[in-house]
Each structure stands twice: as C-alpha cells, then as structure tokens.
Design goal:
The chain is built from 14 helices and four strands. The protein is of the alpha/beta class. It has a four-stranded mixed sheet. It is globular and about 60 Å long.
C-alpha cells in the first residue's frame, strides 16, 4: 500500500504562467493521474470541466492572485505536510484495525478559485473529497485557517477513503441514507480531532452549529432519507443545494457536519471507543446509541 501525493505545484505554476490557449491541455495532464476519482461516472469525463465545477483555480482570469496564493501553499509546505499526515494517520488507524484492507491512494491537491463566491464564502475556501477509495482530492485557498488545518483536512478525507474501502462499508447510491453520510462526517472529524485536537479537527463549516439544538433536531428528522441526490441540503446546507440544483430543506451550511459530530461524540462517550476503533461501525448503531444517550 502506498500513498502518493501528486506534486502538482510545478505544473500549476506553469499553467498560471502559460498563454491562456495552452492552459486546458496542461491542466488535463495534471488531472489525469487522479481521473479514477470519477470512475463511477457514466461515459468519459471532461476533467477540465470537472475542475471548474469543483471550484478549481480559473484558467482565464485572476492570474496574479492565483500565483500569489499558489506560492502561499508552497511556502506552507502543503504537499509534504499532507503526505506526512496521511502516513501518520494510517499508522494510527492500522494499530486500531490491523485487519483493515488499505488501497493504494493517490492524492490530488489543487488551488481553489478566488472568483467563486460560494467556494470563498459559505465553503470558507476549501472543498475536499475522499469518498472514492484510492483517491483523495483537496482544494484549498490559503486562508490562514485553512493552512493551519492542512493535516486535519487530509486525515478527515482519509477516514472516508478507509471507511468505504475494499471489504468495508458499502455505499450504494440508491439506498444509502442521509444518516450514513452524517455519521461518516462525524467519524471523519472525530478521527481528525483524535490526532489534532478539537480546534483544528472540526470541519470549519460545521463549527457554528455544533450546539444548535434546532439544527440537530432538523437533521435527525431526515436521517432516513435515501438517495444521494437528496443529500446536499441535509449535509452541506441549503446554499450548497441551490448551487447544485438540489432542493433546500431549511438548513444552514455545514449542518450535517455539526450533527454528525454530536452523534459520534455521544456514541464514542457511551462505548468508550476511539474514533479509529469506530471506523467501520454501522451508522444505525451510532445513531441509536447516541439518541438513547440524550
């Protein structure tokens, strides 16, 4: 098993210095080693279009701002810090679950889009995805808060990768519940907090709602909703749902993360388990144990 953090810094620097007409082809070459992230998509995926949809750095504007931001990521030693964090976290996880099957993992780090109001606003300059086993995607704008959380963010996504890895929890897009994703976000944050503490380990978008009982009650009411197409509002909130054409349900940004943390913390407190030990626990068990403890 190997963790490969793609060294995307030199290529992104070249893209941002190249003529605009050359940039799409250069970017495609950067993204191709991580194309397996989209292996469940039907047909051939336009990697450059997916980069744009995912709030990746623009190819036709904001060059100077992006160049400066890219250097900030480089100066923060982002690539090596992420690699060290993932390897350290994997060692902790395997100590807790020695029989876990771990795939080879490819990590793609890209700079975000400063002109994307949703990315820079509600998402606080960070998006990430670790739900496809074998791939971790990290998209940052170098706000100081994000640079401080580089390791914790990477470890959060690693937790998803391992929970849904070979022989682990099965994610069926048609039947999976909101409860599964909410619990998975709570488990991933709990693992990051186990390693880096509460201040850095919490996903930032969920922090404002950690003690909001109305948000908790609303999310709990939707835990049995099925089908991935319905998840955005329940987990990420209404603003993100509207952006991607989903139906709002009356929740703020990061609601599912906040509630997932509360459910998982109650479960861990009741059972005495660590987040690493609870990696593969059934989400229904987490929910039932947590709600019974209230």
């Amino acid at each position: 098993m190997t963790i490969t953090v793609l060294d995307t810094y030199p290529a992104m620097r070249e893209i941002l210095r190249s003529p605009q007409a050359d940039r799409p082809a250069l970017l495609k070459a950067v993204l191709e080693p991580a194309a397996g992230m989209y292996r469940h998509f039907p047909g051939e995926v336009d990697l450059v279009a997916m980069h744009r949809m995912g709030s990746g750095f623009p190819l036709d504007r904001d060059e100077q701002r992006c160049r400066e931001a890219l250097e900030a990521l480089h100066d923060a030693d982002a690539w090596r810090r992420v690699e060290r964090a993932l390897n350290d976290a994997l060692a902790v996880q395997l100590a807790a679950t020695p029989d876990l099957t771990v795939p080879d993992i490819t990590v793609l780090i890209v700079l975000g889009d400063p002109g994307d109001a949703h990315f820079m606003g509600p998402n606080l300059g960070m998006t990430a995805n670790g739900s496809v086993p074998g791939h971790v995607f990290l998209n940052f704008w170098p706000f100081p808060e994000n640079l401080a959380r580089l390791e914790a963010t990477a470890v959060h996504e690693l937790n998803h990768n391992l929970r849904y890895g070979p022989g682990a929890v099965v994610w069926d897009p048609a039947t999976v519940t909101v409860g599964e994703q909410v619990v998975s976000e709570g488990l991933a944050d709990a693992f990051a907090r186990q390693l880096y503490g509460d201040e850095l380990g919490h996903t930032r978008i969920g922090v404002p709602h950690l003690r909001d009982d109305a948000v908790f009650a609303k999310v709990v009411s939707g835990l049995d909703v099925t089908g991935m197409r319905n998840f955005t509002a329940w987990v990420h909130g209404d603003e993100t749902a509207v952006r991607y054409g989903a139906t709002p349900v009356g929740l703020p940004t990061g609601a599912g993360y906040a509630v997932g943390n509360r459910l998982v913390d109650a479960y861990l407190s009741t059972t005495g388990r660590t987040a690493a030990q609870a990696l593969l626990v059934d989400s229904r068990e987490v929910v039932d144990t947590a709600l019974a403890a209230r």
